[in-house]
Amino acid sequence: MDADSLHYSLELVAGSGNILNTEHRTALQTSLLILRKNYKFNRVLFWGKIMGIKEDYFIAQGRGDDELKDKKNLYSFNCMDWFLLPPATIPMIEEVSKAATGRFMGDASHVYENTILKKVGDEDEVEEELVRISAVEHRLAVTIHLIDDESSVIPRGAFIKNPHGFVQVNRCFEGLTESQAAKLDSFLHFRDPKTLKKKSLLELSELNQTIDFLDLLTDDVPKGMWSLQFENANKVLILRCLLWLGMTFYHVPMTPQHGYIYIGDGVRNLDLSFML
Amino acid sequence: MDEHRDRSGDKMLKSSAAFKTFLMKNSQKSNMNLYDHLTRLLLKVMDEQPNDAVDIFEDLSYDVKRGLFEDTKNRLRDLPHTTLAELLAEQQRLLFTQQEDTEHEDELVESPLPNINEIGFYLEQAGVGLGREEMQRIFLALKQLVDSQPLILHCRLWGKILGTQSNYIVAEVEFKDWDNENEKSDQAAEEEQNEARESEENEMDQLPQSTYKPPPVVPKEPMGTGSNKNVYYVCKEPGLPWVKLPSVTPAQITVARQIRKFFTGRLDSPIKSYPPFPGNEANYLRAQIARISAGTHVSPQGFFHVGEEEGEEEDEAPRDSYEVNPDFDGVPVSEMVLSLSMWVHHVQHILKQGRCSWINLAVKPEEDQNEEGEAEETEEEPDEPEPEVGPPLLTPLSQDAEMFNTPPWSTKISSTLTSQHAVAVLRSNLWPGAYAYACGKKFENIYIGWGLKYTGQGYSPPLPPPPQKEYPSEPEVTEALDPTVEEEQVLEDALEEQQAAPEEMENTDEEEEEEEEQELDND
């Protein structure tokens, strides 16, 4: 959620149970402004909190000219000192998925080790120990990337693609009406579209090139992955992702206020199909 | 002469034209002119031909004038759309009404209503909560609950359970006496048995009775003890009526331990799972609440102590009662954060059986009421099962077992910068969403989450049991391979040799037999 709107939008997502301490909130307001100036971001978002066993990681995300591609993630333990995370690449994702299991520790110097016993050949039963190593920073970067990829949401019309191909905030976005907001198909994934290309020509012809360049939430599998509710005396629309428990998206209908935040333990909910 | 006539004619024409233009001049007020009005009026009289037109002439004129005003508004008007927020606001308005009959005496008597504003403040320091306005609404809703139920001893906000379609706000209530509850549950049980007996009588022919005896059902704990110590009320939004959850049975707890399901938000929705859950979502919710309470309700050590009436150390019966310790001074926050032994559980652990106090099922109880109406015959002699023992009440958290390589609790101090006035926060890693805080003499537990336990890497549902054996296998029923041709041949040769010795005389018979057997073999 945008750093400028932090002080009131945290109340709107409080229905999920996790809010920020007043101390952290004020620290964030100060430090995010400084961060924006130092790194020359266009916008700075408070992305959320990943809870570790000993300590929690506060994550901030800075956005450049292209909102979809120019993203930089930073983490901090005390909301004041921020450290830049490396961008997540495919070999990094592979490395982390093999090595890092269990919960986040909360220790910046922790190294994940996963030893796998592997049999070499059928004849000799020698077992080799393969040790996969990954650093916490890599794991954080990959987790944030995956969460953004799979569960970041925007209302339809909030971002537009300008003629140069940059994705930017739509200043004319007035907000969805209440009846539009009650339907899941008014929301889009904020990531490089994957299912959009698979749509038929007939469906594509109905879409508006400037605002419908992203995947719909209703194309997600399994179908019940998103929980749509009105909260806070039915004033705010809340979308919760059941695949990444802790991801909350909010939108106040008829206003341009929207945003998302992740407060959770950074572990994908693999049992989703059993739980629905 | 002609000129004169012409001049007077012209004059008349001119004056009539002048008069006509005068008539056609639009009035400044109404933008109408007399000429048009008179035309319309006369046309109307021509059309309608009323009697005594001259008497109603003024009315006619008035009607014509009025008919000129068209209705500019559209006949169709939009129905005002009642939004969801407006509907809820109507119901939540009742929260803010003051009861007329509250007397000042009530302020002196200790009210069972907790001070949610204070709790909300401390929870906010800990980083947990629902937002100030929502907490305020919940506060008022709890007040409504307490006012509506007269026998409440303690009332507490237990927490919030999130669901896919709507959420539950849960309140924990302890009643002063349990007679009402027992009566209702007995009545329900009796009704069930009556229905079962009636269905038995309706059967005309007795179908063959199966010899299957289901394993004995663990009886549920009586109200006021063990996992049924408190009664829980839920509501969807503060302001909507509170619904009481049914009491929990051990079977529900054992099945709830094996399944993993989201809550939908509707209390009557069925739970489709394997093993099949005995009940609907209300029962599942109650079972999870019982498990969470047993696992995560903690208090600073010394806040509660065992009742002084039980002077002897009873090793057999588990302690199930505790009292607030009046001598508790409060533990400094730094100590609470450093070591887990300063926190203790104050809710009884639920045994594997599903109850807090173990019951021996092998013993035939005398009051056993069979729902099927069959007489229980003497059971086989089982081995005496060992009584299950859980950790006693008020055990410190340092004794909690570590599961899945994660420590079960994480402690934190709410602020490192102003640690003199900070709050000690305890977070459960096994039940994500369970928090406890302590600050001086005050403490509180709360759960805000999805109602699910942390199961490590992945959940795998339990396998179905192996299929039952059909009947005991005896040699008559077991299949055996038919003997092959060679084996039969060998057998025959052996028989021939035996018969050849005594019966050498009957060669022809043997030959016939051989031929017959060859024919049979060829078949």
UniProtKB/TrEMBL annotation, chain A:
Signal sequence, renumbered to the chain: none
UniProt keyword annotations, A-Z: Cell projection, Cilium, Cilium biogenesis/degradation, Cytoplasm, Cytoskeleton, Flagellum
Listed GO biological process terms: axoneme assembly; cilium movement involved in cell motility; motile cilium assembly
Superkingdom: Eukaryota
GO CC annotation terms, alphabetical: kinocilium; radial spoke
One Pfam family this sequence matches: Radial_spoke
Family, per entry: Belongs to the flagellar radial spoke RSP9 family.
Name assigned to this protein: Radial spoke head protein 9 homolog
